[in-house]
Each structure stands twice: as structure tokens, then as C-alpha cells.
Amino acid sequence: MDARASLSILLLLFGVSQASPLMEKGFEGVFVSEPEPLDITTRILETNNGSSEVLIEGDLLFPKTRNALYCLNNNCFWKKNANNIVEIPYIVSSEFSYYDRLVIANAMSTFHSKTCIRFVARSTQTDYISIENKDGCYSSLGRTGGKQVVSLNRYGCVYHGIVQHELNHALGFYHEQTRSDRDQDQQQCWEHS
């Protein structure tokens, strides 16, 4: 993938993850509202304060089997299928309420409407995302192989923007401040891509 396409996708996903409407139309015409405006970073850091996991940059799960900064043969990326769609198998823990599941599904549907990413219910796939009610808001970076936990604590993380933020990490996206081109002038970026 060329640098221009990568930058475009990253900017799109970042924009999508930062969108946190107070009221949005959900599945089957159900409106899902969030109780208060969110500062995603503050909410994530406060929720992760007591986490038992070793986290990098506040919400990236420290890799136990590989270095997250090095991706041999692109094996840490989810692959496009023959139709240029990236299917991400997932399961959602039964600990989540109907409302929680609706928020998670709505966050996933935004990816469907704006990108080539499709979250699909897991059947027999070996590599998949398991969305679980753990002690914080965090994910590992990119496809890790096998079951990949995305933690969304029911009492601090199940908000549209936070779900998208953690799913972005599971897809392989870092925080903006860790990008190699973070200090470049935005106009210069666009002129050279």
C-alpha cells in the first residue's frame, strides 16, 4: 500500500474514532445516547488506572509474544480478501448487556460504512477479536494470531468513540503522536503524497 493510501486510511480511521455524537441513530431505528460528552483519552486513562495489565501509551497491551513495533512479513495486519474487503472475525462476551452490544455494533457499523473493514461474527476462524469485559479499555496492536482480546470495561469503556479507538488498535493503528511523520506540516504531507 502506498504512503498516500496509508495516510488517507489512517486519517479516516482517526476521524471516525474521534467522532462521539451525543445522540446517534442505532440499529432498527433505536437511538443510543451517551450520558455526557466524552473526552476519550481521559475516560480511557481513568478506567485503566487500576488495570492489572502492562499497558503502553495508556491503552496498548504490552506484547507477550512479539514486539509490536516490528511486524515480520506483515503478519500482524489483517488481510484483504479477493473482493478487497478486510474481514475481521469477532465475538462479544455474554457479560455485555443488550445496550452495550448495541453500542459495540454501532461502532463497528461506522467502519463498515466508511472503510473496507467488515467485522463479521466468528465461526471457525483461527484469528479473531474477542471483545471482553475486563479491567480497562485496551487492545493489542494489530493481528496477534489466535484469540485477540479487546478489553471494554462495562463501567467506563462502552462508548462509541472508545470502542472505535480500541478497535483501531486491534486493526494495527498506533496513536497519532507515535507516527513517524507526526511532526511534519500537514500541508507538506499532502503535497508530497
TrEMBL record:
UniProt keyword annotation of Protease present: yes
Annotated GO MF terms: metalloendopeptidase activity; zinc ion binding
InterPro entries: MetalloPept_cat_dom_sf, Peptidase_M12A, Peptidase_Metallo
Signal peptide annotation: 1-19
List of residues binding Zn(2+): 165, 169, 175
UniProtKB keywords: Hydrolase, Metal-binding, Metalloprotease, Protease, Signal, Zinc
Cofactor: Zn(2+)
Source taxon at top rank: Eukaryota
GO terms, biological process: proteolysis
EC number: 3.4.24.-
Domain Peptidase M12A stretches: 67-193
Pfam families: Astacin
Active site, per annotation: 166
Free-text comment on the cofactor: Binds 1 zinc ion per subunit.
Name used for this protein in its record: Metalloendopeptidase
Record organism: Labeo rohita (Indian major carp)
